[in-house]
Amino acid sequence: MTNEKLIQMAYEAMENAYVPYSKFQVGAALLTKSGKVFKGCNIENASFGATNCAERTAIFKAISEGEKAFVKLAVVSNSKQFTYPCGICRQVMSEFMMDAVLLFDDQDKGIIEIPMTEILPFKFDL
Ligand code: THU
Questions:
Q1: Alpha helix ranges (H) inside the chain
Q2: If both were cysteines, with which of 3, 16, 104, 122 could 82 make a disulfide (CB 3.0 to 4.6 Å apart)?
């Protein structure tokens, strides 16, 4: 699975974003160690706090299907710029994928890879 392909799958997922309030579409594609890809989009709600981010949609889909070992997570948006995960998503990611790599895309700068350890150097843990 190339970085370009995973980013493309994240853009595909983005098309399903339900964003009547922010109009900010986000897509995610999560590659498991077993080679499967789980896609996710953001899903907003009239009660804003009930909104689910694209990254968590992808992670929760994977976990609920019995997958817990992740290699890469691609995140894109309709902003045409690098879109970095919110704090809640970083915390959820930290539970399952501290050894994974994140992929981001910018229309002009292209694809970049950032390790989880760099995005969240000091994770909360029990
Ligand atoms: N959003 C995500 O899907 N992922 C993030 O990491 C940041 C924010 C969504 C939530 C909401 O639907 C919209 O972007 C604006 O905050």
A1: 3-14, 54-64, 87-96, 116-119
A2: 104
